[in-house]
């Protein structure tokens, strides 16, 4: 994409508000369209390990909000130390994604929230058993009645509230966002040079939208095969179409310095290696060492304000609450 204004102006930090308004990247904005009561219930459920068979694994286990909304493992650890088949994507800014999971098999956050609960390799419960546990806890039942008008506990209500909480996990006020809003000294010349490369060498073609990703599906290894031993086949598993083999949802670049290791197989540990590899297999370009450093500087400037709130106090189990099975099948 052709630059909207000169590199000289960028590097000098002399950018008019009109020029900023024409930039293809927009600052993230904190959402104002959430239901606060559902958010609070969803926050509790997000951290509650009782939604898993073991009573040990919560949503936060794989989408750790103190670690960029991921777990920094090549693949997550599920029930019984099961090794997951794919890298855990960040939950931060996931509200901006076209679909959820790497292969897009969930249309939205509500559908996604129900998946791990019933996955035998993740939380290893069933929806019915999860509902039974929550329905046995008076504190949850009271909150559900206050929100939904009656005390019926259902997987639809549980996933609806978890999704509402996840919609709030937006990370504004990154250094680059502040620069976009007119704070000329929020970033340095390396960041601005990296941004110029990002726009002019093709990165923006896939990494676009508010989260700089999540808006489309793309084949990994577009111009050169991506070598991996991981068995995931991308959208092929959803559509059954051979043309969708190795086609995955484009990941967000927001907070990317926090969400290592990279790619669906978690095989790349550093941003430098990731940028170098993406240049080769997606763009057909061999970035110089200086260009890689500049692009990485830009990517690090996308780290925004992280979720910051007191840990939720979970309501206690009742005598008839089904007990966890941490060492069972």
Number of strands: 4
Main sheet characteristics: 2 strands, antiparallel
| pLDDT < 50 runs, ≥5 residues | 1-19
Rg = 21 Å
Secondary-structure-derived class: mainly alpha
H-E order: HHHHEEHHHHHHEHEHH
- CATH topology (level 3) name of the largest domain: Cytochrome Bc1 Complex, Chain D, domain 2
Q: What's the CATH architecture name of the largest domain?
A: Orthogonal Bundle
Number of discrete helical segments: 13
If you average the pLDDT, what whole number results?
93
Classify the beta-strand content into a percent band: under 5%
Shape by Cα distribution: globular
User: CATH H level of the largest domain: which superfamily?
Assistant: Cytochrome c-like domain
What attributes characterize this protein structure?
35% helix, disordered N terminus, Cytochrome Bc1 Complex, Chain D, domain 2, 329 residues
Write the SSE topology.
Layout: H1 7-12, H2 17-21, H3 36-47, H4 59-62, E1 77-78, E2 82-83, H5 109-118, H6 127-135, H7 138-148, H8 155-166, H9 175-180, H10 189-200, E3 217-219, H11 236-239, E4 247-249, H12 271-283, H13 289-300
Antiparallel strand pairs: 1-2, 3-4
Helix pairs in contact: 3-8, 5-8, 10-13, 12-13
Task: Provide a descriptive summary of the structure in words.
With 329 residues, the chain is mostly helical. The chain folds into two domains: 36-166, Orthogonal Bundle (Cytochrome Bc1 Complex, Chain D, domain 2), CATH 1.10.760; 175-300, Cytochrome Bc1 Complex, Chain D, domain 2 (Orthogonal Bundle). The protein has helices at 7-12, 17-21, 36-47, 59-62, 109-118, 127-135, 138-148, 155-166, 175-180, 189-200, 236-239, 271-283, 289-300; strands at 77-78, 82-83, 217-219, 247-249. It has a two-stranded antiparallel ribbon with strand order 1-2. Strands 3-4 form a two-stranded antiparallel sheet. A hairpin with a 3-residue loop joins strand 1 and strand 2. Helix 3 crosses helix 8 (155-166). The longest helix is centred in the C-terminal third of the chain and has 13 residues, at 271-283. The radius of gyration is 21 Å and the shape is globular. The model is unreliable at 1-19 (pLDDT under 50).
């Amino acid at each position: 994409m052709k630059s909207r204004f000169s590199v000289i102006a960028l590097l000098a930090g002399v950018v008019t508000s009109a020029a900023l308004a024409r930039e293809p990247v927009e600052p993230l904005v904190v959402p104002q369209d959430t239901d606060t009561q559902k958010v609070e219930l969803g926050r509790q459920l997000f951290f509650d390990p009782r939604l898993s068979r073991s009573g040990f694994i919560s949503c936060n286990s794989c989408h750790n909000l103190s670690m960029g909304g991921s777990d920094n493992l090549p693949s997550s650890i599920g029930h019984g130390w099961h090794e997951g088949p794919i890298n855990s994507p960040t939950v931060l800014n996931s509200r901006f994604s076209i679909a959820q999971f790497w292969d897009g098999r969930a249309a939205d956050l509500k559908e996604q929230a129900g998946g791990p609960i019933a996955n035998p390799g993740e939380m290893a419960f069933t929806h019915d058993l999860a509902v039974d546990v929550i329905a046995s806890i008076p504190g949850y039942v009271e909150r559900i009645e206050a929100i939904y008008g009656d005390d019926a506990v259902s997987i639809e209500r549980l996933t609806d509230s978890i999704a509402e909480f996840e919609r709030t996990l937006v990370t504004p006020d990154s250094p680059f966002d502040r620069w976009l809003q007119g704070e000329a000294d929020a970033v340095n010349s390396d960041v601005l040079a990296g941004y110029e490369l990002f726009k002019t060498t093709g990165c923006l073609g896939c990494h676009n939208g508010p989260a700089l990703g999540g808006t489309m599906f793309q084949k990994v290894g577009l111009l050169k095969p991506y070598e991996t031993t991981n068995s995931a086949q991308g959208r092929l598993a959803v559509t059954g179409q051979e043309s969708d083999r190795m086609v995955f949802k484009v990941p967000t670049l927001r907070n990317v310095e926090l969400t290592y290791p990279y790619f669906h197989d978690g095989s790349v540990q550093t941003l430098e290696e990731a940028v170098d590899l993406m240049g080769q297999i997606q763009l057909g370009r061999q970035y110089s060492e200086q260009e890689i450093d500049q692009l990485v500087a830009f990517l690090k400037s996308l780290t925004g304000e992280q979720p910051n709130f007191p840990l939720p106090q979970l309501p206690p189990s009742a005598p008839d609450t089904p007990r966890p099975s941490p060492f069972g099948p």
